[in-house]
Design brief:
Blueprint: E1 2-6, E2 11-15, H1 17-38, H2 46-51, E3 67-70, H3 73-85, E4 109-115, E5 135-142, E6 148-151, E7 155-158, H4 164-175, E8 183-190, E9 195-200, E10 206-209, H5 217-223, E11 234-240, E12 243-248, H6 249-254, E13 267-272, E14 276-281, E15 296-298, H7 306-312, E16 321-333, H8 334-339, E17 351-358, H9 363-371, E18 378-384, H10 386-418
């Protein structure tokens, strides 16, 4: 104990170390409470926000119903099939692969040549030596906005949507009663219609006329200088009249049937559509993987597996993670879950909140994770091991008891020094 003189009275006051420790602890608590009002922070604490509200609306307690599915070969096959089917691909525009024949469009300039079997007809004079050949070149005709041209002695002809051969036969038929066995050759001198436009995320946005031999999508993209983004992030949109379809560029490369023939007037739009996944829980802290400072990661290819995604985010934290509790959150189709044997009768919507789980403690867990295809905006959550929570509690207890031990030790030192 500590003996102290009590001023003028000359009496000794007795201070027990335990009393001094309690006094010091109370002083620390007062100081801590004062510090809460003076330490800097970004904004008000949660209790201040809630207590200052005039009206508080709390949602009714309602949990989200979800399905928990352990990865197995059956589940893996069903979900991967659904993932592959969700990849954008052309459907209605896929044909037999034949080139679309270029049709005459408004603005095109047509060259018309009329042949007659002998002189003395409509176009060839009787004096055969006055000119060479048995044909006459009609001045070029431009298709007007109404889709028509005016051919000499044949009148006004609507040619839009026709082929040059069809126009030639139509003119010859109209001249049959006036010319001598006429034959007419029509060619497109200048193509100002039938344009194909390629724009968006390409190096050289361009517009060109459809070749008579046809043009496929990849050829049109090549003419525009190619995409500026990787193929697995490049989405190709083809607009044809009132219809629009989309396909991933890697689908066109891997499946030649997807490299469709373009039609006159098509618009090809290239856009970058990166896919990402999120990693939460007991993985390495942000910034420890190649300088990455977040938990949002882009795909490196069009079909990234769960094992690749975990590796990209740095792998499991061996000091905290529970390898038997790796979860993947996504919205899954009812039909896919039904194929796995899941009872989906309680779910009304077509998409069901689903959590897939895999046990990486098992040897086959690695094989399953390396065959599980990730989807855009999937969430990987790695649970912490139970021992981690125990260690946290023990650390908190150790810190708390250490504080009082230090206070008691300090009080004892003071008492010893005062003796």
């Amino acid at each position: 104990m500590v003996l102290g003189r009590n001023g003028a009275q000359g009496r000794l006051s007795v201070f027990y170390p335990s009393v001094l420790a309690r006094s010091l602890a109370a002083a620390c608590l007062v100081a801590a409470g004062t510090a809460c009002t003076v330490t800097p922070r970004d904004g008000p604490i949660a209790s201040a926000v809630r207590s200052s509200a005039d009206v508080t609306i709390e949602p009714a307690p309602e949990s989200v119903s979800y399905a928990l599915v352990s990865l197995s070969p059956t589940a893996l096959s069903a979900t991967n099939r659904s993932t592959s089917a969700a990849t954008p691909a052309f459907t209605r525009f896929v044909s037999g692969g034949r080139a679309s024949q270029a049709r005459i469009a408004p603005g095109d300039v047509l060259a018309i040549t009329v042949f007659e079997a002998s002189t003395g007809g409509l176009f060839l004079p009787n004096e055969s030596g006055s000119r060479n050949g048995n044909f006459v070149q009609v001045p070029n005709q431009q298709v007007d906005g109404g889709g028509t041209i005016n051919a000499p002695y044949a009148g006004t002809i609507r040619v839009v949507g026709m082929t040059p051969d069809e126009v030639g036969r139509e003119i010859a038929q109209r001249l049959a009663k006036r010319a001598i066995e006429p034959q007419v050759v029509v060619t497109i001198a200048e193509r100002r219609g039938n344009d194909i436009s390629v724009l968006g995320d390409v190096n050289l946005p361009t517009r060109f006329s459809l070749d008579p031999g046809g043009m496929r999508v990849l050829g049109a993209v090549a003419r525009a200088g190619g995409p500026r983004s990787p193929a697995y992030e490049t989405l190709i949109t083809v607009q044809r009249g009132a219809r629009t379809e989309q396909a991933l560029m890697t689908s066109l490369v891997k499946n030649p049937a997807q490299n469709i023939q373009l039609a006159a007037g098509d618009v090809v739009y290239i856009s970058r559509e990166p896919k990402i996944f999120l990693t939460l829980g007991a993985t390495l802290p942000p910034g420890s993987v190649g300088g990455i400072n977040n938990r949002r990661f882009p795909f490196d290819n069009d079909n990234m597996t769960l094992a690749e995604a975990i590796a990209k985010s740095g792998g499991l934290d061996d000091a905290r993670a529970d390898p038997s509790a790796v979860f993947i959150y996504r919205m899954e189709a009812r039909r896919t879950l039904s194929e796995m044997g899941v009872d989906v009768s309680k779910y009304a919507s077509e998409l069901v909140p689903t959590i897939y789980t895999v046990d990486l403690n098992r040897a086959d867990g690695m094989f399953l994770s390396n065959a599980f295809f990730m989807r855009n905006r999937d969430i990987i959550y790695v649970s912490t091991a139970p021992s981690t929570e125990i260690n946290k509690f023990l650390g908190l207890t150790r810190n708390t008891t250490g504080l009082f031990y230090d206070l008691s030790l300090g009080a004892g030192s003071i008492a010893a020094a005062a003796r």
